[in-house]
Amino acid sequence: MDNFYFFVLMCILLILLPGPDTAIATRNTVTDGTKGGFKTMLGTCCALLIHTSAAVFGLSAIIVKSALLFSVFKYVGAVYLVYLGIKTLWGLKNTTVTESSVKSRYESHSCFKQGFLTNLLNPKVAVFFLTFLPQFVDPGNETFLPFLIMGITYTVLTAMWFIFYIYLLNQISAFMKKPRTQAIFEGLTGAVLIGFGIKLALEKAHN
Length: 207
Prior knowledge:
By secondary structure, the chain is an all-alpha fold. The protein contains ten helices and no strands.
């Protein structure tokens, strides 16, 4: 395996870029506190480990090379993101939102499931693993162990970033949990999720 430290640096830069996982973790942290944020993070990391396993055993390569399978994952993931976005915006119809009502609205929702499905149903993650990880492996050498190490490394770095990010959000929770702030924030999050869903639906499979 080549340039492991450069690989770690690139992972950190990529993880810091906001995406659907960050949007879901942010919303669930704001509405359900650190508990919701950590459950979302756990779901995301479990999905990343599945993507790692898929890359190690070659399943991701099948998905990426099959236009049909790629499209199935792409549209299912896109629909799920748009669904979450619309669901968030729909909740804003109640203009008078209290902290207790927000908690009640989300108490039956599985933050873990949202984090898990958002990441798992995003075929761009599979594409990322199949195009990014091989850059750090010697051609012709065994890829099983290097892919496994890099996948676990990426998952651990993702968890570390979300732990910091969730705690940071929690520190400003007093401001974030004001009804007006939450209404604005949920509106923005809903729009972002719908945007990510549409972007994912328009994504073309890599040949």
